[in-house]
Amino acid sequence: MESNENYKDDLLKRLKRIEGQVKGVQRMVEEEKYCADILIQVAAIRAAINKVGGLILQNHSKTCIKKAVNADSGEEAMDELIDIVLKFIK
Q: In the chain, N or C: fewer CB atoms in 10 Å?
């Protein structure tokens, strides 16, 4: 597993890229660009944010849940994980 600092840097880089994409879509709307082009960019933003969420979920599963299972809080941790996954996929 990569270090916490690399993980955090990767997430921040991805989030800044998403922020730039959102600002680009704002400009496209302001400039009344073609709707199909805007929708393509919205889909790209959605995919990028889902990737960030997936990485966070993966990290949570590998670290926090693992610690809880090792500390004999496994059942509670699994319930929390299931709840998080269900919220994430909505």
A: C
Both tokens assigned to 50: 């889902």
Give the pLDDT score at 1: 46
Contact 76, 68 (CB under 8 A): yes
Amino acid letter, 71: A
Rounded to the nearest 10°, the torsion over CA 21, 27, 31, 36 is: 20
- Residue 80 CA from chain centroid, whole number: 18
Specify whether the CB–CB gap between 68 and 74 falls below 8 A. yes
Residues 67-83 pLDDT 10s: 877 777 778 888 888 88
**Which residue matches tokens 């690399």?**
6
- Which residues are within 8 A (CB) of 29 and not within 5 positions of it... i.e. 6 or more apart? 38
pTM of the model: 0.80
32 is written with which tokens? Answer: 């009344």
What is residue 2's predicted lDDT score, i.e. its pLDDT?
54
